[in-house]
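pipeline: protein-struct stage 2 | run 1193 | Dymeclin
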Amino acid sequence: MAFYCNCKIRLIDDSNLATSREIGLTLLHFTRDYEYRVSSCLAMGLNCSTFKQVESNEYLQRFCGPESVSHNDPLWNNLFSHSLSPLFTKDDYMLLDGHSENLRNQFIINNLSTRNLSALIQVFASRAKELSLSVQTVDSIFIWQTCNALSLIKVFLFFKENGNAEGPIIDGDIDILEVLAEQSVKIITEIPVKSLTYVLHLEAVNLLIILTSGQMYWPVPAAKLSAFRVIMLGSPSNSAALITKALLLNYMDQVAPPNPLFQRGDDDSGSIVIGMASGFWNILRSSVGLGNADDGVMSEYKKHNLASQSLNLLLILTNHCTCLGEDSLNIYQHSLITLGNDAGVQNEDALAAPAVEELSLFKLNYSKLYEVICTKIDQDETTLLLYTLVHRNSGFKSYIMARSDIEQLVLPMLKTLYNAPTSASHHIYMSLIIMLILSEDALFNQQVHDILLKNITWYTERNLTEISLGGLIILVIIRTIQYNILKMRDKYLHTNCLAALANMSSKFRSLHPYVTQRLISLFETLAKRHAKLLKKLDESPGEGSRTEEEQASEMVQDINVLEEVIRMVLEILNSTLSNQLAHNNHLIYTLLYKKHVFDAYRHYDTSQDLVYNLDLVINYFTKRLGDEAKDLSVNEVMDRIQDGVLHWSPEILRKFGDLKFRYVEEDQPENFFIPYVWSLVYKRSGLYWSPINLSIFGSENEYMV
């Protein structure tokens, strides 16, 4: 038996306080069988009551009915003035869906002939044109009603989506779709973000996300979908730079939602009716010993705030339609990758970024953007934004490289890689690619060894009281390689790991003893695994069943991959010894201590040239230790190594080319980024889409892990 709390909302004065307490006491007298349902209903606050009443609302019934509503019908004012609970979380949408099945079905059937949704959009558009003046005059009622109109459009788009209606999202009328998109863009770009307009902005951003969400259901290029054609090529594209700037500013400002939710702010703005409802429910909850209703709602609301939703929309706009042809480009992406630096006051911690070669369509403060990214880089969405900036925006990348506090950016990414067993695989991959891109810069590779870190508490294998940032990068990447080979077996992942280490290897300096141990230990682990697989392959029958042949083929592939990795590790060691031997006494010590691990590779064609150089170093310093090497203390060995370094001649080593690897994006990046972006929006935006007929994530749902 379902229980719904269906109390009327009253003004909160002294007399009504008693009424509220009476209602609360009455609820307490329900039997234990209903106790959980009462608490759950109250925990939903006003939403439960409001959604329950949706189907009985006379204005909504008429809108969804068989009668067309004209543009000047009084229904619109009544509809916009009615207090519907806003939809900000998936629970809100699911509650609405559960209480509005009949209304939804009526709308889907009747709207084909009445076109009332198109009429609603046109009425909203006419009101939206007056918003700027309403904000200036602080006309909170008009703004609230316009926000309600926008919310209603979102609700009926939600109805159409979850009703699995066939056909375009808005009656096949691309002109109406363009009007809706254009007015939503104008709200985002022209109306200032204040407590009075915060929800209006959030609704406009969410609406554009919903309009573009057809990509999740239609397995066709985005450029063939009406919403993307309008946004990319229609009138909204004329404001592409402005909306890109506005969305980035929303993300950078991280403005908190008005609190308490939907109540009057300091400027007497906000929804009066919903504010009273919220106050009523808070009193009612207190009377039965529950917490403030706004606490739970605000907790969810803050997760899906304007900053996070703006970033979601920005990722959608910049990652779709990137291959429109030679004569067309994604103007939103172009705006982002040519973003210039509005430096303002020179930041003491960074040099001014050099001028961007391409003309910037707009400028923002790099310093503020960098600081926000550093605080949010543990999130996939921010990592994707940073990837675009460091990969495509040369000005922002140069700015990052000039920062003296680069550890603020790198440490959270290292923590993501360190937590690979519990991190999302795509987040690991993107974090690693960013590290690879950073390692392409010689200044970065040198700078990271000058930054000393203390007490890295999340690195639990060993207590690191002090280590350079460069040393920590090496440790984490080595750990990622080992985890990948044992668990994930992703060839591209360890290739990128090794490429980053290779780029940095010529600048390895003053490596911590533990770092050198882990570096040689990596080679030792790979060598043991290689020997084990070779032995297993030799013992396998030459001819056998199909299963045995497949297993043998897999072993051969694993052996080939391991040999590539082993050679790369040897190249990294050679690069370090050729360029930085004089600054790596601990590495020399570890090589002397572990010299036996290279024995088996002196005769392999793929590695003997590299091992030859290692032997030259090992033999030279072994002679410096003399016959009494076994009797020397660690300090005495280190002293003799230091003395040997002073007399070392680097010319005796064979010369190999510099290790330089550059990240190159795949030919069709949309195949990776579009499903990835939508998986994040689907899971984390707070918006709800029916899982039925989702096609973008593939049958294995790899993006939903």
